[in-house]
Amino acid sequence: MSSPRTLKQQQDLVARLREQRGAAHPETLAAMLDLAEMLWARGRLDEERAIEEHVVAARRGALGDAHGDTLKAQGKLAATIGAQGDLQAARRLQEEIVARAPAAWGEHARETLRAMNNLAGTLSAEGDLAAARALLEQAIEALHREFGDSDPDTLVALGNLAAMLWQWGERGEAYWLQRQLVDTRRRVAGDDDPATRGAVAVLEAMQRDGMP
Fold first, then answer.
1. pTM of this prediction?
2. Which residues does the chain have with pLDDT short of 70?
3. Which tens digit of pLDDT belongs to each residue from 148-196?
4. Angle at the Cα of 77 (from 24 to 83), degrees rounded to 5?
5. E strand residue ranges, the chain
6. For site-directed labelling of 205, which of 34, 62, 176, 187 has its Cα 20 to 30 A away?
7. DSSP character string of 116-136
8. Chain-centre distance of CA 115, in angstroms?
9. Core vs surface per residue 100-114: b (16+ CB within 10 A) or e
């Protein structure tokens, strides 16, 4: 198995693909998204955003606004924009994804429910707890029904809801949800799993902050 590429190697690969296959070729765009992830890990959000904006525009031109690959790239761009602090722009992109996701993937498909989870996080960050909570609870209900209570996406959404409620002062319900999350992760993966340890750490922090 080959070693992971360095940032310079990935940049060189993108430059070579752009020259040989064109800036809108699917292989070029995939390599650009890989480069964007490497830039994200280094905090170089302006460079990452420029790449993702190019990928979104190219995929819209080739595949249309509602294609699943376009929506996935748009979701990455929305996360970058949100991390830069422009929550309104991130929300608008995420709302487009949520509106188009059922046609692209299915109403209760995993990608659709992840998009709802992401939008809920942005709504909460903007201060609209009621809308964020309603959307996330809808996503969690569908995840439970379609994939089960121990599915990774279900557990991530449950943890997000607990954190959201805690942040907004709904501490009793948040604590109960976090205990439920810890119990499920212990049952599924055991005490030594990193995700279990993370959930336990959050629960212990809640306890130190005044919960029983």
1. 0.91
2. 1-3, 211-212
3. 999 999 999 999 999 999 999 999 999 999 999 999 999 999 999 999 9
4. 150
5. none
6. 187
7. HHHHHHHHHHHT-HHHHHHHH
8. 7
9. bbeebbeeebbbbbb
